[in-house]
Amino acid sequence: MTGAAQERVDDAVVVGGGAAGLCLAHWLTEAGTGVTLVEAPDGPLRPAERTWCYWEAGTGAFEEAVVASWRRLRVRGPDGEVVESDPAPLRYRMVRSGPFERLVHARLAASPAARVLRATAHEVRDTSYGAEVRCTTADGQPLTLRGRHVFDSRPVRRPPPHRTLLLQHFRGWFVRTDAPRFDPGVADLMDFRVPQPGHGLAFGYVLPLAPDRALVEYTEFSRAPLTTDAYEAALRQYTEGVLRLGRFAVESAEQGVIPMTDGRFPRRAGRAVFRIGAAGGATRPATGYTFAAVQRQSRAIAAAVHRGSPGVPPPHGRRALAMDAVLLRALDTGRVDGPRFFTDLFRRIPMERLLRFLDGGSTPWEEFGIGLRTPVGPMLRTAAELPFLARRETGRSEESPR
Ligand SMILES: Cc1cc2nc3c(=O)[nH]c(=O)nc-3n(C[C@H](O)[C@H](O)[C@H](O)COP(=O)(O)OP(=O)(O)OC[C@H]3O[C@@H](n4cnc5c(N)ncnc54)[C@H](O)[C@@H]3O)c2cc1C
Predict the structure, then answer these.
(1) Which fold has domain 165-260?
(2) What ranges do the domains of the chain cover?
(3) How far apart, in whole angstroms, are the C-alpha atoms of residue 238 and residue 278?
(4) What is the pLDDT of residues 190-237, one digit of tens each?
(5) Is 165 within 8 Å of 394 (Cβ atoms)?
(6) What CA–CA distance (Å, rounded) separates 194 from 203?
(7) Which of 49, 52, 217, 267 to mutate to test the pocket of ligand 1 (most atoms within 8 A of CB)?
């Protein structure tokens, strides 16, 4: 790194090149904003390759990275009840983080206004011209990046004070079966035909990639992750006892923990420093979905920077967060039966409306209707108690990539 390069002041420095950092760097560059994206060198800070799924209408900006998509979505109740729907114009899509990163890096490399560096960021602080990011390169050299604005997506160490913190934790197998077992036209979002844990809920998740290939996951919403052995046992039970896959090979696995909380994530960390991505509250508390919110937010930030009024709009609306807080608490206290709740919700509400609601695109009237189709008594009781509960810190964990 030359002295001149170190003196450069970008319009924006983006710290962390995961889902949020890559999306934001992409949209900033599209808007003609000068940007440096700094991503951790290979090592413990870099998460393992992961799968990001989301729904979207039409053709998105990252279509080249979509490895599979499904028009029909299914939920299966604990007793086998099937709720299947085509949420047109929305389509469920899967991207893999590795190809997604390569796609965005290639686009950034083609733009003179963008650069991607590999270094570990230690400190971000306001300065007279904006903010600076102090880093160390992979070969141990100090590096300071300067920007009029810094957008920081490094994961937070502890969740913010909250009333409820559940973890969405899971392990998935990419399987190849000896015989065709899957319908690649339909994805199973929640399959509750699995033994339920004492607290919270559990479900299977099946994303078919071909008649003989799929990502099959076992997921829990509960307070603590399982051991890898316990996930493996649950996956064996699900693939053999429920899906009856016959002989199959596990080609690779993915595991993760996503916090689901009603804590408030500050989006501002300094005069010119903003938090984005999961670290800035982009994870939808009731579902763990983050990727779509990150895309919406990135476009909005890039437009705001372009207008000269940078800021980070909230990733989720107030009403959505209030409804999620009630649901999280109702699940955590056991006042609602999770498998029944989700199966009934998908049966009673058109899938397209429900997915639009989860993307923050529903009207207040539609949200009222969604509220009425939940177990009204336990939900109202929970809503009534929430204002009297303080948000507290707990030692429970942040998102872990493995
Ligand atoms: C296994 C897994 C699967 C998921 N699947 C889905 C899904 O299907 N759909 C969905 O909507 N959400 C999903 N999520 C939730 C969420 O979308 C992801 O966690 C997503 O990666 C969050 O994006 P992010 O940019 O906030 O964080 P990350 O993608 O984790 O990015 C943070 C980046 O910061 C970098 N970094 C960390 N420390 C430093 C440092 N000191 N200096 C420089 N760089 C640093 C890391 O290397 C990383 O690239 C999943 C989460 C996990 C764990």
Answers:
(1) D-Amino Acid Oxidase; Chain A, domain 2 (3.30.9)
(2) 3-158+262-307, 165-260, 318-388
(3) 30
(4) 999 999 999 999 999 999 999 999 999 999 999 999 999 999 999 999
(5) yes
(6) 6
(7) 52
Q: Which atom belonging to ligand 1 lies closest to the Cα atom of 21? A: 25
- Do domains 3-158+262-307 and 165-260 share one topology? The answer is no
| Residue whose CA lies nearest to ligand 1 atom number 37 | 154
Cβ of residue 52 lying under 6 Å from some atom of ligand 1: yes
More confident residue, 152 or 6: 152
pLDDT of residue 396: 55
Those residues whose C-beta lies under 8 Å from the C-beta of residue 124, and which sit 6 or more positions away, are 15, 131, 132, 133, 134, 150, 152, 269, 270, 273
Residue 10: pLDDT band with limits 50, 70, 90: very high
Q: Give the pLDDT confidence score for residue 374 in this predicted structure.
A: 87
For 5, phi then psi, to 5°, come to: -65, -35
Q: What separation in Å is there between the alpha carbon of 243 and the centre of ligand 1?
A: 30
Reply yes or no on whether the pLDDT at 357 is more than 70.
Answer: yes
Burial 90-121 (b: 16+ CB within 10 A, else e): bbbbbbbbeebbebbbebbeebebbbbbebbb
Q: Report CA(255)–ligand 1 centroid distance (Å).
A: 13
Query: Which residue has tokens 């950092």?
Result: 21
pLDDT at res. 402 = 31
Residue from 51, 122, 154, 298 whose mutation best tests the ligand 1 pocket (most atoms within 8 A of CB): 154
Tell me the pLDDT band of 368, cut-offs 50, 70 and 90. Answer: confident
53 closest CA partner among 402, 267, 358, 398? 358
Task: Please write the tens of the pLDDT for every residue from 88-118.
Answer: 999 999 999 999 999 999 999 999 999 999 9
CA distance 397 to 133: 26
CATH architecture of the domain 3-158+262-307 equals 3-Layer(bba) Sandwich (3.50)
Q: Is the CB of 15 under 6 A from ligand 1?
A: yes
For 363, counting Cβ atoms within 10 Å of its Cβ (0-12 exposed, 13-18 middle, 19+ buried), the class is exposed
Q: How many residues does the chain have?
A: 402
Q: What is the pTM of this model?
A: 0.94
